[in-house]
Structures are given as structure tokens and as C-alpha cells.
Amino acid sequence: MNTIPNSWVTPAIKKRRKFVNIQYAPPLLITLILIAGHLTFGILEGYKPILLSIGCSILTELILARLMFGKWKNLSSAYITGISVGILVRSTFVWPFAMTAIISIMSKYVLRFRNTHIWNPSNFGISWMLAFLPFSVAGLSIQWGNNILPMIVIWALGLIIVWRVKRLHITLTYMISFVMFSLLRSIITGDSFLTEVSPLTGPMYQLFVFFMITDPATTVKNRKGQILVAFLIAFVEFILRLNQFIYAPFYALFLVGPVAMVIHLRLNKLKQAYQPGIKV
């Protein structure tokens, strides 16, 4: 096998290799989560919905990227969106999987601020469908159960992902905040603390904390801002859950994430105006 001599490996090549490794780690690991979960507990209601979600997501990405930017985009993000939709959406119909995937990808190209999409794609599509088509669509809840083995596998792989892309502090901030607000909810509602905190061990929350709130494209860039936004997402979710919103985490990210991105981009522009070349 031919290899590049170490003396030829420039910093640019090293940076490119690192980028490629990071870029393809999430698609690979979320696929392993899906396979392990389905083979062990049969989490999918069938292969057709998830294949349809992935196919519609990728096709929409290809078409819109070509039409709007005149280029072919890397499809790892579209794949993650499609597989997330396939896992998190539940419906007795097939069409909601396709519709959710298409809406999710379209949000990247239509809902933009300063040439940047501000909603996590799958979060936008799923939240929209849950809000406007509640009789046709539901979200994944506890279908996987809280069995210890798949939970350990998911948490291990998820922590590897967020650590690799330098987003571990976001996940940990949200988790700690969720536990704190769960305790407060138990005091307010009279429910047991374990009842309030138990959703965090379910598959919906596992995918939420590892793949949605940590999305590099739709999170603010500075570490302190990321920590603050993660706390605010948990706080808004706390308010929504007190008001009996079933899919509170999705709605919380839907509300907080874009506002945070708009503020970040505006502050970044102001900063650049006074200090050219400096980013927030």
C-alpha cells in the first residue's frame, strides 16, 4: 500500500484529515446506534420509513444545494437529519417521514440569517410536524425502554462524538441543568424526583443531547455562549414541561437556538466593525 511520507504531510493535510475524521464520526456512530438498537429491541416499525427519510433528506439536500449555491454538498449532515427523523418520528402513515425530512432540509436553505441557517434541521422539521400535524405524527418516547445495555452503548458512543467535536461541555451543561430543574419540578408538582429525571435516560433525550443541541452549524461559537444557551434550553424546557408540553425539549431548542444564533451573529458583526478580523 502506498502511503504519504511523514515529511510530506503538511499542516494543511493534517488539518484536512482531522476535519474528515470529525465530519464522518457522527454519521457512523448514529448508524451503529440505530443498528444496535433495532437488532436488540426492534426500535424501528419497519425499514421503509427510515430509508424514505434518509432518501428524501439526501435528495432534497442535493437539489437545493445545486440550485441555490451551484455546488454539490457533503451529505453527512443530510444523512444525520434523515436518520434522526426516521428514529424520532412515529406515525401510522409513511408520508410524514418524507415530509419531515424535506421540511428539515429546506429550513437550512430558506430560513437563514446573514447567510447562515439558524435552526437545527431535524429539530425544526420534527417540531413543525408535532405542532401542526399532531394527529398524524408523534415523537419517540420510551419505545426502547430504559434497559441498561443499550443505554450504556448509546451514552458511550454519544460522549465520544461530543468530545471529538469539542461539544462535551454543552451536553454536560444541559444534563446538569436538566437534573436541577427536575428536582425543582418534583418540589413544585409533588411528583417523585425519579419520575421527573427519568426521561433523560430514554432514547429521545439521548439523541437530543448528543446530536441536536450540539450541532456545530447551529450553535454559537464561543464556549461561554454555548454553556449559557444549553442552560437556557433546559430552563425553557422546564417551563414547558410544567405546562404539560409533551415534546418540551424539541420546542425549547426550537425557541432558544435560533434566537441565540441571531444574537451571536449580530454581535459578531458589531465586533468585526470595531475590530476587523476579530470574531466573537
Rg (C-alpha, Å): 19 Å
Give the SSE string: HHHEHEEHEHHHHHH
- How much of the residues is beta strand, in percent? under 5%
Roughly how much helix do the residues carry, as a percent range? over 70%
Concise summary:
The chain has helices spanning 11-41, 47-69, 76-88, 95-110, 121-132, 148-164, 168-189, 193-197, 203-212, 223-242, 248-274, and strands spanning 89-90, 112-113, 116-117, 138-139. With 280 residues, it is mainly alpha-helical. Strand 2 (112-113) and strand 3 form a beta hairpin.
Q: Can you describe this structure?
A:
With 280 residues, the chain is an all-alpha fold. It has 11 helices and 4 strands. The strands form 2 sheets. The chain has a two-stranded antiparallel ribbon with strand order 1-4. A two-stranded antiparallel sheet has the order 2-3. α1 packs parallel to α3, α3 crosses α4 and α4 (95-110) crosses α5.
Features:
single chain; 280 residues; mainly alpha; two-stranded antiparallel ribbon; two-stranded antiparallel sheet; 11 helices
Record the SSE blueprint:
Elements (H helix, E strand, L loop, with lengths): L10 H31 L5 H23 L6 H13 E2 L4 H16 L1 E2 L2 E2 L3 H12 L5 E2 L8 H17 L3 H22 L3 H5 L5 H10 L10 H20 L5 H27 L6
Antiparallel strand pairs: 1-4, 2-3
Helix pairs in contact: 1-3, 1-6, 2-3, 2-4, 3-4, 3-5, 4-5, 5-11, 6-7, 6-9, 7-10, 10-11
